[in-house]
Amino acid sequence: MTVKLQLDRVSKQFGRLLVADDVSLDVDAGEFFVLLGPSGEGKSTLLRMIAGIETLDSGTIRIDGKDVTDLPPNKRNIAMVFQNYALYPNMNVYRNIAFPLKMQYFPPEEIEPKVRDVAKTLGISEILDRRVNQISGGQQQRVALARAIVRNPTLFLLDEPLSNLDARVRFAARAELKKIQRDLGQTFFFVTHDQKEAEVLSDRTGVLHHGVFEQIGPFGQLYDTPATRWIGDFVGDVPMNYIPWTESGAAGSMGFRPEWAEVSPAGSESATVQVAERVGDFTYLLCTTANGLRIYLRSLRSVDIGTEVHYTVNRHVFFQGGPGGDGGTTESGRPERHPPSH
Question: Cβ(311)–Cβ(265) under 8 Å?
Answer without folding.
Answer: no
